[in-house]
Amino acid sequence: MNRPDAENRDLFAIADLAREFGISTRAIRFYESKGLLSPERVGATRVFRRRDRARLILILRGKRLGFSLRDISDYLSLYDADRTQQVHLLVEKVDERIALLERQRKDLETTISELREIRALAGEGLSKKAG
């Protein structure tokens, strides 16, 4: 995903970032509209810097891990602030996400077990009718 040449560049066009990360320019503009990215403008053209690229990496990672845009925004708002506060927020949000996923896994296991029971009962019913 990350290209070595991109790591060394200072400026990026929106199309460059979209291509590099496999997302649409519309998605990048959406993140900008939510205040998650702040590109500079040269006329009507958006110019993204390394900082914007780094923030986009964090946004996409957060989305992939299931965090809400609000959670991502809260984390990014501390990006240039106190590192300790940023780490505390990250740990808190990660713990919440793990707890949610564990509850979902338990619910899925229960549902799968119930469906297997239903399937077994249905299979027994079919066997009795055939016999």
UniProtKB/TrEMBL annotation:
The keyword DNA-binding applies. InterPro entries: DNA-bd_dom_put_sf, MerR-type_HTH_dom, MerR_fam, Tscrpt_reg_MerR_DNA-bd. Pfam families: MerR (PF00376), MerR-DNA-bind (PF09278). It comes from the Bacteria. The keyword DNA-binding applies. PANTHER family: HTH-TYPE TRANSCRIPTIONAL REGULATOR YFMP (PTHR30204:SF58), REDOX-CYCLING DRUG-SENSING TRANSCRIPTIONAL ACTIVATOR SOXR (PTHR30204). This is MerR family transcriptional regulator. The lineage of its organism: Bacteria, Pseudomonadati, Pseudomonadota, Alphaproteobacteria, Hyphomicrobiales.
